[in-house]
């Protein structure tokens, strides 16, 4: 096959980062294989809440650094998807519903008592990246969502099949992301292909996505370690 060049080569290099995505982390492999204990699922849900509540801070940082009005008016939707529009409910509420469905109280999730240091460091590194790096790199770092829908679909099936003690009414978060993630990642891909033109800009975008794969992997390393059998 001829070598890919230009935008095609750039998109292929971004997609190739899927090999480093956290769907292949041993903790997720055990989760989707139905091999996690109740305590481990609860630990994952409580720790991942810290990621969920930090995503709008990350997206607000991208907005604050982005001079392009067209990008901002679409990107702002991500914040409402998580925080909820006034009077409505968003992804953070849905995650709290998931927490209750796995037997946690809202209080113990909201007060972050279960969040382990490695998860906090990894998530904070993602927010700091968005605050301090050029906005196009921060957009590129969100592109792990290109790889998320398959993992979400597997997770939904695994939760329903392998963990009958989880109230299926609490799985709405994942159903919503099945629609939101492709929409968001398609937009992010359009933005980076339009704005990252030089070889150097494209290499930085791929490096940003690689960094994000490390963030997600580190989150699971920390959870796996904290909740080992
Ligand atoms: O459960 C997952 O495996 C997973 C992965 C990712 C991702 O790949 O970054 C996100 C989410 N979930 C998610 O729920 C979410 O809202 C989200 C936002 C972002 C982002 O970087 O802007 N990634 C993700």
TrEMBL record:
<dbReference type="InterPro" id="IPR039068">
    <property type="entry name" value="PqqC-like"/>
</dbReference>
<comment type="similarity">
    <text>Belongs to the PqqC family.</text>
</comment>
<protein>
    <recommendedName>
        <fullName>Pyrroloquinoline-quinone synthase</fullName>
        <ecNumber>1.3.3.11</ecNumber>
    </recommendedName>
</protein>
<dbReference type="InterPro" id="IPR011845">
    <property type="entry name" value="PqqC"/>
</dbReference>
<keyword id="KW-0560">Oxidoreductase</keyword>
<feature type="domain" description="Thiaminase-2/PQQC">
    <location>
        <begin position="14"/>
        <end position="221"/>
    </location>
</feature>
<comment type="function">
    <text>Ring cyclization and eight-electron oxidation of 3a-(2-amino-2-carboxyethyl)-4,5-dioxo-4,5,6,7,8,9-hexahydroquinoline-7,9-dicarboxylic-acid to PQQ.</text>
</comment>
<dbReference type="InterPro" id="IPR016084">
    <property type="entry name" value="Haem_Oase-like_multi-hlx"/>
</dbReference>
<dbReference type="GO" id="GO:0033732">
    <property type="term" value="F:pyrroloquinoline-quinone synthase activity"/>
</dbReference>
<dbReference type="Pfam" id="PF03070">
    <property type="entry name" value="TENA_THI-4"/>
</dbReference>
<comment type="pathway">
    <text>Cofactor biosynthesis; thiamine diphosphate biosynthesis.</text>
</comment>
<dbReference type="InterPro" id="IPR004305">
    <property type="entry name" value="Thiaminase-2/PQQC"/>
</dbReference>
<comment type="pathway">
    <text>Cofactor biosynthesis; pyrroloquinoline quinone biosynthesis.</text>
</comment>
<dbReference type="GO" id="GO:0018189">
    <property type="term" value="P:pyrroloquinoline quinone biosynthetic process"/>
</dbReference>
<keyword id="KW-0884">PQQ biosynthesis</keyword>
């Amino acid at each position: 096959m001829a070598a890919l060049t230009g935008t095609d080569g750039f998109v292929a290099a971004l997609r190739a980062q899927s090999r480093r995505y956290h769907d292949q982390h041993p903790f997720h492999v055990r989760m989707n294989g139905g091999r996690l204990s109740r305590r481990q699922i609860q630990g994952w849900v409580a720790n991942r809440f810290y990621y969920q509540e930090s995503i709008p801070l990350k997206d607000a940082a991208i907005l604050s650094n982005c001079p392009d009005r067209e990008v901002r008016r679409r990107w702002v939707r991500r914040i409402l998807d998580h925080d909820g529009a006034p009077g409505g409910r968003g992804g953070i509420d849905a995650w709290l519903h998931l927490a209750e469905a796995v037997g946690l109280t809202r209080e113990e999730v909201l007060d972050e008592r279960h969040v382990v240091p490695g998860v906090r460091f990894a998530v904070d590194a993602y927010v700091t990246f968005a605050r301090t790096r050029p906005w196009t790199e921060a957009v590129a770092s969100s592109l792990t969502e290109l790889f998320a829908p398959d993992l979400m679909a597997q997770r939904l099936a695994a939760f329903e099949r392998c963990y009958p003690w989880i109230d299926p009414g609490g799985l709405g978060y994942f159903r919503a992301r099945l629609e939101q993630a492709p929409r968001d990642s398609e937009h992010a891909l359009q933005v980076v292909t339009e704005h990252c033109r030089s070889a150097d800009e494209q290499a930085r975008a791929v490096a940003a996505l690689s960094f994000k794969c490390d963030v997600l992997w580190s989150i699971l390393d920390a959870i796996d370690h904290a909740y080992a059998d």
